[in-house]
Design brief:
27% of the residues lie in helices and 15% in strands. The chain contains 5 helices and 5 strands, in the order ββαβββαααα.
Length: 186
């Protein structure tokens, strides 16, 4: 590498590659000028100080960054922030709302000791909340009985929970207790 570039700060992106974007995060509107390449995870953590969602693999494979966008779970490391203009984003910090009481899923994770190191826990909790909504809306999974009526709520047994949560990895292996916590909230 040429020595004239060592230690040089990266240049700011040109104005044409940034847009003013308004996102509703945990019920509050936030208007920011965002680089078109900036992903939601970085915006949440670095611009809004919401550090619950974690940067794990940065490739959408581990689920540590899972948040809810308009009620659906997404890997925030893959979502361009400018593409979410006007969307409602819920992070683990916003699940309980403005009150001090924990969301039932957060409480179940605590009661079941469904975490060890805790790194994946915010993504696991957001994903579990999304799983409940998806099943209630009748979205089938790979293991849903093909004979089940289309569009009807899907019963969440252990196999369904495990399949639907399979996109969220836990390096500590807390899977049985995570499934127990989800079952407690059903």
């Amino acid at each position: 590498m040429d020595s004239q570039y060592e230690g040089a700060a990266p240049a700011s992106p040109p104005e044409s590659s940034r847009s003013q974007t308004t996102l509703r995060v945990n019920g509050k509107p936030h208007t920011l000028t965002v680089d078109h390449r900036r992903v939601l995870l970085d915006l949440l953590r670095e611009d809004l100080g919401l550090v619950g969602a974690k940067k794990g693999c940065d490739h959408g494979q581990c689920g540590a960054c899972t948040v809810l966008v308009d009620g659906r779970r997404v890997n925030s490391c893959l979502q361009l922030a400018v593409a979410l203009e006007g969307c409602e984003i819920t992070t683990v910090e916003g699940l309980a709302g403005d009150g001090e009481a924990l969301h039932p899923m957060q409480r179940a994770f605590l009661e079941r000791d469904a975490f060890q190191c805790g790194y994946c826990t915010p993504g696991q909790i957001c994903s579990a909340v999304g799983v409940l909504a998806e099943a209630a809306a009748g979205h089938p999974s790979h293991v849903t009985d093909p004979a089940a009526p289309s569009g009807e709520p899907v019963a969440l047994g252990r196999e369904e929970i495990r399949e639907r949560m399979s996109g969220n990895l836990c390096r500590c292996g807390a899977y049985p207790r995570i499934a127990d916590a989800v079952e407690d909230v059903i």
